[in-house]
Design brief:
single chain; 284 residues; alpha/beta; Rossmann fold; 2 domains; 9 helices; 40% helix; binds adenosine-5'-diphosphate
Length: 284
Amino acid sequence: MKIQIRSINLTYRYLCCCMAFKLEDLPVIEVRQVRKVYPSRSRHGQSILAIENITFDVMKGEFVSIVGPSGCGKSTLLRMLAGLLEVTEGEIRVNGKSVCGPYGDIGIVFQTPTLLKWRSVKDNVLLPIEVLRRSRHEFVGRAEELLRMVGLWDFRNEYPFVLSGGMQQRVALCRALIHDPSLLVMDEPFAALDALTREEMNMELLKLWTERRKTIIFITHSISEAILLSDRVIVLSSRPATIDSIFSIDLPRPRTTDMQYLDSFQNYSSMIHERIYLKQRSNI
Ligand code: ADP
């Protein structure tokens, strides 16, 4: 009898291990044959085909950047991923569930931090908690911890106008992370910052990603930023956006800014550059 129970126990544990392994291996994001058409804005205007037949997966904890020519459909794709925009055809699944509208397990950072100027830094970070109708009291400690992590502890009670652009974007990052989402999507979050602050923010983001292991989708115009940060870089074609190519970035981690001078980094850079710009030029 004892032996039988022990063998059932072992079988159960073996099955759990297999399931755990499989769950880890499942993609967090599944984009399937997605198409997006914007209807025309006027009666005689034309509809705009922004995205055509896009399919890709993103695994748990992956850092994936999306690059492509300006106006190709990057933000459209990101807004559909976040449930802020409907797909016209195809399907996007996040954690196995079809995206049909905004959902909670996601943090979003846009190019402009859009902080509320009448709320303190800490209260800006806590804003999603109020929107999600969760207990503010439970999250104050986390807000403080995040602000400490991005070096803004001393500014927690200040108002946004005393902060530089980089500091404001750090607050926006803390706000996106306050409810501990497993997925973070970022739409050119550092585009408005000067080069040095941008590098600093890149390193800050990598530190955060390493410590918290979020799945990150990052849109950028900067090829070197995409290479420096990512496990994979998805290159979109000009509009309508299709997937032109996907590069796996085989550089060691932790990444450092001086990796930009490595031959392998330069190779990735010229290959991605070629995919984006040579193709564009051949279309002229
Ligand atoms: P990107 O982020 O790559 O610069 P977008 O996703 O913002 O590109 O836009 C892709 C295309 O869709 C562009 O041609 C843009 O003009 C068009 N577009 C974006 N938003 C709308 C909208 N709300 N209505 C109509 N067309 C739009």
